[in-house]
Fold these 2 entries.
Entry 1:
Amino acid sequence: MVVNGELKSVSEMDLSLAGTGNISFFPNPVSDGVLKVGGLAENATVTVYSLTGVKIKEQKATSCLLHLNTNGFSGPVFIAVQQNNNISWHKVIVE
């Protein structure tokens, strides 16, 4: 991936963007049971909600890259990322 004119690997990109608000979700749609969430601040909280607002899963990040197990739910979901006193919302498809 190219960031600011420089070619970087995913791990370099995740480290350089950690906690800056440039959160990435891959793959999207998720088909292998694991959603990778990158660009997180340490101790960020990632919460998955159904379209009706029911909390499905919550996990705390221990590094800038979180592997979120998506087994047990499918379809479109909303993901709330709480870090640095901010909450951002994202939509992901789980197959």
Entry 2:
Amino acid sequence: MIPMVKEWFKKAFPTCNKIKSYIITSQSNNINREINDFQQDNNKDEIKLLFAISKLNEGLHLKNISGIMMLRNTRSPVVYYQQLGRCLTSENVDNHPIIFDFVDNIDNLELINFKHDLMKSVEENNKYRVSLGLCEERINFALYEEHEDVISKFRNIEKKITYNWYDNFNNLVKFYEVNGHVEVPKDKTNERLYKWCTLQRSLYNKQVLNEEFVQCLEAIDFKWDLRLERWKDNLKAYHNILETQYHSKILYYDIINENYYLPIYQFEGLSLEEEKIIKWFYRQINIFKKNEMEENKKKIFISELRNIEKYEENQWLKSIWKIKSFYNFMLTEYNIDCNKFKIAPKKDELKEQICSVFNNKSIIENTIDKNLPKSSVKSIVNLKEKEEMYFVASFIEENMYLEGMEDYIDHLNYIYYKKLLEILNNVSP
């Protein structure tokens, strides 16, 4: 809507090179800043537009408002008068503010006698002023109804749309009563109803679907985002597999980040459909790791993860994550891919170190193998590889005992870095 309104003003004022917009809603965190910027920015060569949703209805008056455009209808006469008051104030008495009621609130609220009532109030007020020896006030007010024919035609269209809408809605209710859900399939039998449901979702996403229609659909558990619902169904299917395979052995832990991990199970006797669900779930793990998961899914998926801090017996996972973080740091900051050139030591001593402190030897060893690079540094490397290995070794030696390296090195994984230095210092070009 905002781009559309700005385009209106561009066409109405083609010589104006700058149209500036401000936005405030009931959810805004910077309302005062936006309002102050709007009032203080007094450039006469630009048009200022303040878009307000569920705000500015009461308790606030703005100076130098030259007009109001009503783009949302209201059922409250009080709210309507408050909206008018944004420009019909004493601060704007020298101006000639214009109010565009594009949604015909004045008619919908049966306020068509507004002008008559206003002039009557002014007349009574002037009598009182004269009795006090004050001069009369003069208010120039004009009400234009050039839109009346257009509105009338649109209302006729709206009646037809509303009638057809409820006709289709009743068909959807019948479908729900028969099937127990409203996920209409795309087949010849339900083609028309399927297209109608698709249209409702599209209108809802564009925020133009009538609120009354929204409430009717939600009353029968209508789903606005089918992709999200299918995603939830897959997640539920994964949970069902875990319940039926509750005896499954944990192979290793997939470390997601410094806070979370996931157990990876060894499933047996899965059907083809169940195998697809397992693969789907593993894809979701990678999508989450890459921070590519949609926010609505991320909020759900994060509940699947286990918090490292919650389990004392799994604190060793932090040490493994710190090594992974170091390799990620080398790649992002210096473009050195330690996985590609196998810049990693053997993991035997690290495994022994952690197993000496924590239980679950099999899980510890498998987790280290799955989360850290393979250890196969070549004894002879080319010049570029030698330079990169030398840089990694120098970085570790110079920073190993500095406070900043606590993000990468601790008392458990220290032995891993010592082994890494030995290997890096023994390669030759």
